[in-house]
TrEMBL record:
Protein name: ATP-dependent 6-phosphofructokinase
Protein residues bound to substrate: T276, I277, D278, M321, G322, R323, E377, Y434, M435, I436, R437
Pfam families: PFK (PF00365)
Any one GO molecular-function label of the UniProt entry: 6-phosphofructokinase activity
Residues given in the record as Mg(2+) binding sites: D248
Species classification: Eukaryota, Viridiplantae, Streptophyta, Embryophyta, Tracheophyta
Amino acid sequence: MDTVFTSFYPYSHSRNSLPSTSPSTNDFPSHTSLSFAKFVFTKQSSLRGPFNSHSIKVRASEDGLIPPTDPQNEDFILEDVPHLTSFLPDLPMYTNPLKKTQAYAIVKQTFVSPEDVVAHKVVVQKESARGVHFRRAGPREKVFFKSEEVRACIVTCGGLCPGINTVIREIVCGLNNMYGVEEILGIQGGYRGFYSKNTVQLTPKSVNDIHKRGGTFLQTSRGGHDTNKIVDNIQDRGINQVYIIGGDGTQKGAAAIYKEVERRGIKVAVAGIPKTIDNDIVVIDKSFGFDTAVEEAQRAINAAHVEVESVENGVGIVKLMGRYSGFIAMHATLASRDVDCCLIPESPFYLEGQGGLFEFVEQRLKENGHMVIVLAEGAGQEYVAQSFHASAEIDASGNRLLLDVGLWLTQKIKDHFTNVRKMAINMKYIDPTYMIRAIPSNASDNIYCTLLAHSAIHGAMAGYTGFTVGPVNSRHAYIPISRVTETTNIVKLTDRMWARLLASTNQPSFLGCEAVQERFANKMDDDFHNLKITSI
Ligand SMILES: Nc1ncnc2c1ncn2[C@@H]1O[C@H](COP(=O)(O)OP(=O)(O)OP(=O)(O)O)[C@@H](O)[C@H]1O
Ligand SMILES: O=P(O)(O)OC[C@H]1O[C@](O)(CO)[C@@H](O)[C@@H]1O
Ligand SMILES: [Mg+2]
């Protein structure tokens, strides 16, 4: 049976208290300097997901490496992030200047222990395996950049999201105030800005109040990722820390940049900060700006409710963002209490017949005289495509462009009640799509953005690269980029949250129809997401 060894400590216990002379020699273990690292092991059969580049896989018998016998650590997995020393083994390291800064002068425990890890799953049973862990984010005692040597850049890609400007501001202010970094460049207009636009110099002064505005101070774009041109540009400009803010597509781009940097063997730390209004990035608890968007969605839902309760047989439809993941719609519905029915991409629905949407609308109109439907933009796309005979279009990044399910549903309900039921209804369709993401972040998202920015800075300064930061069970962690791009976060219909929504709205689950049941059965397995994407 294969045994998997994972490097656990960047340096051994005895080496944690390194002399404060700087630069010190690098004693980071490379993949081969196994004697410095403590290993934990697990049986390969118990592993889920791919290994990142910092996991070490060896056959004990082939390599003659016998793991320390530690029954306590059996089944403990560290999904570690790459480090610059894995391809630049002789990099010098320095004492972290943080302790000398105003902010951290009296902090009791300034540095995160290299032993600190964050558990992926916190609900366990007595007999559970210890499972997957990520390296805890935060400042390290030793850094791999001298402050005056750092030349950082920030880029924002993909769609907007509340809080992007806060992240930009806090990267600039954090680098400057905590590490004394002066050279920070803004890459304008997304990935293509690396090679097609001039950079802007970012200072704490120039970004001082950008967090009060929505959007991105640096502008954004889709498409235009050309890895070679980007890395050429990074080299030409002497950039050695790259902070990349964006969604799943952006993180894939960040992984490609990291790999090319590693191939060229240049000292450049690549840090990803996950951004997605749809909350569709896996592993992390929640994406920044999500709460703000849900809050803003309340205004649209409230408007719909006011409109429909003021007329006879009022039916309100509110369309919210959510390409493949219905989190915004689900959370906005749960928060509002004015919503009668929530339709999301993950949950199939049908219109006609017993247990269908038309029947439910009629029932609610009879009971209450009005009703509100919240609709995620990605819901029911296959029906809309059939009705409109539309061909698939994609954006510059290759994302499928969605058809307007809100308009489609509005028309379907109108037709049904006017022509079939001969019943007058008052339809109100509200489409606040961009309004919920084009606003500044709320108070809690602002704090969250600050933590993300700081975690990214500490990680890059400590020499980590090819990582994404984010909270895992409320603790910020460094997560290998590949881990957050391999799959997409979707609402699991089998989880209690969706059951809570159904229990709150008392809407039909739409499982009465045979065709839906068949699709639902397919969706229940882990491949649901892939099935969904290809089927629409
Ligand atoms: N597989 C990939 N490899 C390299 N770059 C990619 C990849 N997918 C997307 N990108 C690049 O990442 C950038 C953003 O991608 P995309 O438009 O899909 O937005 P996103 O980051 O997923 O954000 P959002 O959640 O707002 O859609 C684009 O410039 C695109 O070219
Ligand atoms: O900004 P664009 O290109 O119109 O894209 C909108 C899409 O971006 C997102 O906000 C994030 O992926 C989706 O919810 C939405 O479908
Ligand atoms: Mg995306």
